[in-house]
Amino acid sequence: MEYKSGFLQTTEGKEITSNEELENWMTRLPEAVKEIPIIHLAIPGSHDTMTYTINRRNDVGPDEPNYIRALGRYCSVFSKPIIFNWSVTQLADIKDQLNGGIRYLDLRVATKPTNEDIYFLHGLYGSTIYQPLREVAEWLASHSNEIVVLDFQHFYSFTEANHRHLVETIFRIFQRKLCPIASSFEHITLRRLNLEKYQVIVIYRNSYAQSYSTLWPSALWRTPWPDTVRVDRLIDFLNIEMRARPLEIGFVSQCVLTPDTSYVLKHLCGTLQMNLIPRCKKVILSWIGQQRPGQGGLNIVIADFVSDNNFSFCKTVIESNKRLYNSQYAV
């Protein structure tokens, strides 16, 4: 899919033709579009963002059933490579994802019984959270008009002390970049965020967030899960959920296929990238191309292997914002 960036323009009015301009796509949006609530913008995100940090020798995580964890302990030579092949959803590191246009990060975290650190995980443990989150903060420091949504989706083997440690880490790393919760999204626009110097929206999908004014609750960002390996069912699910999406809150369309145990057992020598991604990539890009942002429309869209084909997924999502030009938001 060829990307023609006639929508995003430089201040001199010249078209952007280089992919490296994806790293500043929010900065380059037309001024009128920056006045639109961000829940009405099309924003690309990565599913299980930090799985590039997973190593095939790492321990099986607590997000897996007990029998899979037992296989990881006692048959690790056989089982861990299989779990690895079906757990990794991203190959690009976090800075490459951000430079490629990703602005929503899907984060799953867990602890280990052996220490107090917090780790990313998906099937297998990944790296500790600290350096990748610092890299996000460093990237934001050099991209002052870009914003990022951090969605802490799942917490495994977490105590209240672990939540406290994670929240303290978030506050320490992002400090005044954190956007406070608002009673309405009406004024949560790129323009307002830039003026206030807020660059990070943290969604914290746990009741522990209730005590903090800068941790957005799950109820304000709906993210329905398709849970299927069939492309036709995925598209039906996306269409049904899009038609039913609440108008006044954020919405995440998960353009992903999810292998269950029976599927993996039938494809023991396969991988997520080899077996499922080719089946859905073209269909997903076509589906995104048929949607439009705006009230009740496309908002955050996530996918696996977002760096494939030179970030064609991100380009497709970002380009869909041009449909706002001829809408009620045009000035």
Helix vs. strand class: alpha/beta
Rg estimate, integer Å: 19 Å
Distance between the termini: 30 Å
Proportion in β-strands: 5-15%
What's the helix count? 11
Largest sheet: 10 strands, mixed
Strand segment count: 10
Q: Which assembly state applies to the chains in this document? A: single chain
The helix content, as a percent range, equals: 25-40%
Structural features:
single chain, 331 residues, alpha/beta, 10-stranded mixed beta sheet
Q: What does the secondary structure layout of this molecule look like, with pairings?
A:
Elements: E1 43-46, H1 66-74, H2 76-87, H3 94-99, E2 104-111, E3 118-122, E4 124-128, H4 130-141, E5 148-156, H5 160-174, H6 190-196, E6 200-204, E7 215-216, E8 221-222, H7 231-244, E9 250-254, H8 261-266, H9 272-275, H10 277-290, E10 300-303, H11 308-319
Parallel strand pairs: 1-2, 1-10, 2-5, 5-6, 6-7, 8-9, 9-10
Antiparallel strand pairs: 2-3, 3-4
Helix pairs in contact: 1-2, 4-5, 10-11
How would you describe this protein?
The chain is an alpha/beta fold and 331 residues long. Helices cover 34% and strands 15% of the residues. Strands 1, 2, 3, 4, 5, 6, 7, 8, 9 and 10 form a 10-stranded mixed beta sheet that branches. The longest helix has 15 residues. The N terminus is likely disordered.
